[in-house]
Amino acid sequence: MLAPQIFAAVTSTVLEAITGFHIGWPSSTLPKLLEDTSVPVTQDQASLIVSMMGLGGMTGPICVALTVDKWGRKTSMILGAIISLIAGIMTTFARSYWWYYVARFASGLGMGFTSVVIPMYLGEIAQDTRRGGLSILMAVLSNSGTVLVYCVGPWISVSVLSAFGILMPLVFLLLVPWIPETPYFYTMKGKPELARKSLEFLRSTTDIGEEIEKIEKNVEFDLQHVGTLKTLLTDRGNRKALLLTLVIISAQQLSGITVIASYGTTILNEVDSDISSSTAIIITGVVQLVVSILVTFFADKIGRRPLLLGSMFFSMVFLTALAVYFHLEANGNDVSGISWLPATALVSFLCAFSAGLGGVTRSVISEIFSCNIKAYGTIITVIWTSVLFAVILQLYPNVVNNYGIHIAFYGFTICLAIFSIITFFYLPETNRKSFGEIQQMLHKRSESNQIMQPDPTPECTRSNSVYCIDIKNSIN
């Protein structure tokens, strides 16, 4: 019976919906904040309000590293939800732009918790045959939170919209008592009876002897081969995995998706179209959600490389179309005959992005790191994502105001072209490959040669099992 496992997965990924909500929040609220005299906000202050979430996102992963193995995955999720709840309360009752600064930083801090602990929790509760589908659930819930903002934001006040940022964490906090801590964490802490009870609940059966034995072996292996930051940075294969991950994340963020999610309504307001910006942004959000759901059905059949490279190529095409339109408009050309182009290109871009860069990126990251350094790789990846998130959102308004919106989109296109070339030549296909095969490719060793890493147990190869983080000895 899958019901308890699915319930636990859906409950945990409610946190992803909260993250998606906060990412999309500026799109509907910024135009209102700039006009609202009750809470005066300048253009520069609005830009900083948007980017503060990225600054908080840099801090969250570090905090998770200190809590997740000490207090548990479930407790870490609760902490993330409480932080998000505080962010929602401050946003709803904001009395000055400083309230928004602190609230957005807190929402980023919660995002940092979520981005690290949710994949860990899902990987440790899911059956091997369900793990891939449950990981895609994260992207679906994140897009759902953003779509919520797009659908209701234009027609309600900033404070009422922000109240959803209170409601969603409360929903999670009401549901979380009914889901278990992971059996991996209990086993790591030497609590076999609690581990057994957790697994019995998740599998809806007491016949778990074989699986609990595998978990115990995985935990024993991970505790014997604790990865360090030095292991990640000095080993050739691990270093290549990290660099490839940073390239993919850079391609994702520098494609302009962060700007479109946060400034979508403002961008479409620049267009003289028969479709209102509010309607157009709803369409883009729904399309992105639908495509992210559809991609779960063919991701394993097509493969990671084709989806990523195809996504990058078509994203560049549609970004170029947007850049050319805004360039023509900036030069005083009559663009009334192609007023349909920006909204169409934006929707098409989101389709292309969601088919590869949006969801497949997460799958590649989960597969490319070896088990004993996955924690450090994930934390660095999340921090880098947050850095790009903050920098892009801070620089974008300045680029638009000083050089024009077309320069920003030309820049996104060029960045994506560079990263697509690197991806084409260096990213291996990880689809349907075992852990050993992926590591062989990264180390460029023949099958007859042994990779200079501990050989993980088969069950550890595809799990996000125990992320053993030893902060004190991480560089020894």
From TrEMBL:
Q: Which intervals hold domain Major facilitator superfamily (MFS) profile?
A: 5-431
- Name one cellular component (GO) term: plasma membrane
Q: Which SUPFAM superfamilies match?
A: MFS general substrate transporter
The residue ranges crossing the membrane are 7-25, 45-68, 75-93, 99-122, 134-156, 162-179, 241-263, 275-299, 306-328, 340-361, 373-395, 407-427
**Keywords associated with the record:** Cell membrane, Glycoprotein, Membrane, Sugar transport, Transmembrane, Transmembrane helix, Transport
Q: State the PROSITE patterns in the record.
A: MFS, SUGAR_TRANSPORT_1
This protein is called Facilitated trehalose transporter Tret1-like
Lineage, broadest ranks: Eukaryota, Metazoa, Ecdysozoa, Arthropoda, Hexapoda
Q: Which gene encodes it?
A: LOC107223210
